[in-house]
Amino acid sequence: MVLAAASFGAMGVFVKLAAATLGTVELVFWRTAFAVLVLGSVALLRRQRFATPLLGQHLKRGTLGYVSLLCYFYAISHLPLATAVTLNYTSPMFLALLSVLLLGERLPRSGALAMMLGFAGVVWLLRPTWHELGWLSGVLGLLSGLLAGWSYLHVRELGQAGEAEWRTVFYFALISTLGGLLLMQFQTWHPLTAANVPWVLGLGVSAMVAQLAMTRAYKVGRKLLVANLSYLTVAFSALFGALLWQHWLGWQELAAMSLIILSGILASRR
Predict the structure, then answer these.
(1) SS3 string of the chain?
(2) How many Cα neighbours within 13 Å face the side chain of 56?
(3) How many CB atoms are located within 10 Å of the residue 163 CB?
(4) Residue 126's closest CA among 138, 114, 144?
(5) In sequence order, what are the residues at sequence separation of 6 or more whose Cβ sits closer than 8 angstroms to the Cβ of residue 213?
(6) Is the N or the C terminus of the chain less surrounded, counting Cβ atoms within 10 Å?
(7) What is the spatial distance between Cα 106 and Cα 270, in angstroms, rounded to a whole number?
(8) How far apart are CA 140 and CA 40, in angstroms?
């Protein structure tokens, strides 16, 4: 999970670097197309079946995950890296809330406390962003967390239905790639050049390593410990942001991020 967290942090770095020459839709397309190519090739070599009776659930999960990724990459491109990552990591808080609203699950006291801490942290974190960087990037960063939490409901349903993990990841990448091809018909493609190809390759490789390491961690590790360690992504992102762009965090930002992380840890204990 530590490797996954560092790789997700590195992915954010490559998104931010590539955003200088490529649009958000293109960045998401290259990130997911890489996964389709790698996972699809491995599945073919292993003679695994692509057919699934759960195509409807995959479509819901893929659509929500794709829009979440678009919002997330936009936020990374326009916000300090650690801020964008923290807003995305509100997903456990929203997962707990949506489990109550959509599935009728009971919210324990720890879950209610997680909600209050999480929303307090979000408001605290977004106050300077709202005035200095504009409201859109902050709202989309938070929306990425909401949609990611919603997509995880469908991931859980797919797991409970016995769907193979690789197929869940593959169909998410495939749907996102097709979505990118569709949206790019209404935008201008920017060419890959010697200047941005390293960032695109770094984006694809870091995302793939992060996904595989995270999947392995949840498979062999204690789920609560793994979930808590995932928040190291925020720490790595803060470190990368400070070293590369001098985005040094003040005490208020650190306090707000701490509240959001604590909210996620409490929510994951449900």
Answers:
(1) CHHHHHHHHHHHHHHHHHCCCCCHHHHHHHHHHHHHHHHHHHHHHCCCCCCCCCHHHHHHHHHHHHHHHHHHHHHHHHCCHHHHHHHHCCHHHHHHHHHHHHHCCCCCHHHHHHHHHHHHHHHHHHHHHHHHCCHHHHHHHHHHHHHHHHHHHHHHHHHHCCCCHHHHHHHHHHHHHHHHHHHHHHCCCCCCCCCCHHHHHHHHHHHHHHHHHHHHHHHHCCHHHHHHHCCHHHHHHHHHHHHHHCCCCCHHHHHHHHHHHHHHHHHHCC
(2) 2
(3) 19
(4) 138
(5) 1, 3, 4, 7
(6) C
(7) 10
(8) 31
Residue 140 class from Cβ within 10 Å (0-12 exposed, 13-18 middle, 19+ buried)? Answer: buried
Closest CA to 6 of 247, 242, 213: 213
Cα distance between residue 88 and residue 117, in whole Å: 16
Tokens at residue 113, please? Answer: 């406390």
Comparing 175 with 186, the larger pLDDT belongs to 175
List all residues 6 or more positions away from 112 whose beta carbon is below 8 Å from its beta carbon.
Answer: none
pLDDT 10s digits, 8-45: 999 999 999 999 999 999 999 999 999 899 989 999 99
User: What residue type is assigned to position 119 of the chain?
Assistant: F
The position carrying tokens 């491109």 is: 77
SS (H, E, C) 149-200: HHHHHHHHHHHHCCCCHHHHHHHHHHHHHHHHHHHHHHCCCCCCCCCCHHHH
> What predicted TM-score, i.e. pTM, was given to this entire model?
0.90
